[in-house]
Amino acid sequence: MRVLLIEDDPDTAQYVINGLEEEGHTIDHSADGREGMTQAMGETYDVLIVDRMLPGIEGLAIVKTMRSAGCKIPIIFLTALGGVDDRVDGLDAGGDDYLTKPFAFSELLARINALSRRPHLKGEETRLKVGDLALDLITRKVYRGSAEIDLQPREFRLLEVLMRNKGRVVTRTMLLERVWSFHFDPKTSVVETHISRLRSKIDKPFATELIHTVRGSGYSLHEGP
Fold it and tell me: CA-based angle 38:91:137, to the nearest 5?
């Protein structure tokens, strides 16, 4: 999943980012309410995590504005404001869930997963398919024909990005940003290593190759040569 975190506390933000990235998700982060709202309305996200007390514009106003604009992205408030009235205000503003600080990451993850099981909120497909390769975003299972393929979280995210861009070239830079959240080139072979591992599971045991190297450009996932 692709998640946007709008949180101005650096320690909380890093805690959430680290945890979700370990689960194989892609996290974008904004520490400013106004910038975060602009980012949320200009990009495609599966879930938003929003603090209440933010610089620029506070969390309730962000959610009210987005809902008024017709945005249906699932939103979780993550905030220190934990009174009954605070929770009611958050849900009435258009939040789908409300979690108070301090919090356990396992609970946040469970709530995100619960929202992801509501496809009617997301307005987008929850199953990706290319040829006989299928990826289920809800169950996080991958099949090639009838054979289930066991992927690590980072391999799953890498395959998800390639399948969402089926038939198109995905550059190394794009993969670094979307799978590892690197906005710079770390000068390592991390992409090549994970592509090789993915090929050993997705392609090598089967007759038809789906992951193709586009020399000098990147990679493309499609049927045929």
Answer: 65
